[in-house]
Amino acid sequence: MLQSDLTAEVAGSRKLWTADEARALFDQPFMDLLFQAQTVHRRTFDPNRVQMSRLLSIKTGGCPEDCSYCSQSSRYDSGLSASKLIEVERVIAEARRARDAGATRYCMGAAWRSPKERDMAQVIAMVEGVKALGMETCMTLGMLDGDQAQRLKRAGLDYYNHNIDTSEAHYASVITTRTFADRLETLQNVRDSGIKVCSGGILGLGEGNQDRVEMLVTLANLPEPPESVPINMLIPVEGTPLADAAPVDPIDFVRTIATARIMMPESHVRLSAGRTGMSDEMQAMCFFAGANSIFVGDTLLTKDNPGEDLDMRLFARLGLKPMAAHEHHPEDRPAAPGEAQREALRRADPAIPVLR
């Protein structure tokens, strides 16, 4: 049955998953799961190309929400000081540096429950300025109403990130200041505006594998699945309720990536926060399982992230190449990598030949 499910997208139809079907997929022998995930991945994407995004915190700390994992909540003593919304000029300068370093999508995040009207003009100017650099634009600002989503769309916003975090059943154990339904409403407002949806979750919040599966079912069965699905591994933060959370089993994490790839074959599956706690081998397994997007740079909002040098060395070892801006499917990519790109990969690890 699982093999036939992999070809459910025929004649314009789309597979809608039950929790039992998704759990059977997740639980099958590991090698079978990886083989199926890689097979699905190759139908839509070049398996050797990875989309690279850069994330900037445009307003840090002071958030009134009680997300148990978050250092930016004002309810917890995480040692993080609140800051004001940063200047538009600084955002554009940082975006230009990210573009020049190889990032094709620029994501801007603010620690808000939802954006206030007084901040919308500045936020819109950020979108317009980054868009003018030729980059894809993404924001995560908390909950959005329909009017706010429409205004961001008119400014040129390509993607909006709003994670559902976990399953609906486990959600109230993690967050109480906004509901699971609130998150789905924001995703619908974003979709209705014409902005692409970026939504995923976090592993390591005390959930079980059934919660992970049910989270993926919710995402895959949205009226349109998210174009980007970030899968995060919790980075425990001192002072938050999940500071002592048990680590995620690496095999279960890879299983989640593979299951996401099969259930959402046309989405970018992003290997997101937590990569500093992953070995190169674990990251390579995630790429094989269908992850094809990462955040680059030294920080993700307030958390550490592998730097570009480490990422380029790993890419060279694995024969991976960055996607171009606005590249989503194999037919979108340039005909061949340029000499400058090949030279950059050679410099990252001269002992590794770069295939032409």
UniProtKB/TrEMBL annotation:
Keywords: 2Fe-2S, 4Fe-4S, Biotin biosynthesis, Iron, Iron-sulfur, Metal-binding, S-adenosyl-L-methionine, Transferase
Biological or metabolic pathway of the protein: Cofactor biosynthesis; biotin biosynthesis; biotin from 7,8-diaminononanoate: step 2/2
Binding site for [4Fe-4S] cluster: C63, C67, C70
Reactions catalysed, as given in the entry: (4R,5S)-dethiobiotin + (sulfur carrier)-SH + 2 reduced [2Fe-2S]-[ferredoxin] + 2 S-adenosyl-L-methionine = (sulfur carrier)-H + biotin + 2 5'-deoxyadenosine + 2 L-methionine + 2 oxidized [2Fe-2S]-[ferredoxin]
Top-level class of the enzyme under EC nomenclature: transferase
GO molecular function terms noted in the UniProt entry: 2 iron, 2 sulfur cluster binding; 4 iron, 4 sulfur cluster binding; biotin synthase activity; iron ion binding
Record region (Disordered): 325-356
PROSITE patterns on file: RADICAL_SAM
Record bears the keyword S-adenosyl-L-methionine: yes
Cofactor annotation comment: Binds 1 [4Fe-4S] cluster. The cluster is coordinated with 3 cysteines and an exchangeable S-adenosyl-L-methionine.
Domain Radical SAM core: 48-275
Binding-site positions, [2Fe-2S] cluster: C107, C138, C198, R270
Protein's job: Catalyzes the conversion of dethiobiotin (DTB) to biotin by the insertion of a sulfur atom into dethiobiotin via a radical-based mechanism.
PANTHER family per record: BIOTIN SYNTHASE, BIOTIN SYNTHASE, MITOCHONDRIAL
Subunit architecture: Homodimer.
Designated name of the protein: Biotin synthase
Native organism: Paracoccus zhejiangensis
Source organism phylogeny: Bacteria, Pseudomonadati, Pseudomonadota, Alphaproteobacteria, Rhodobacterales
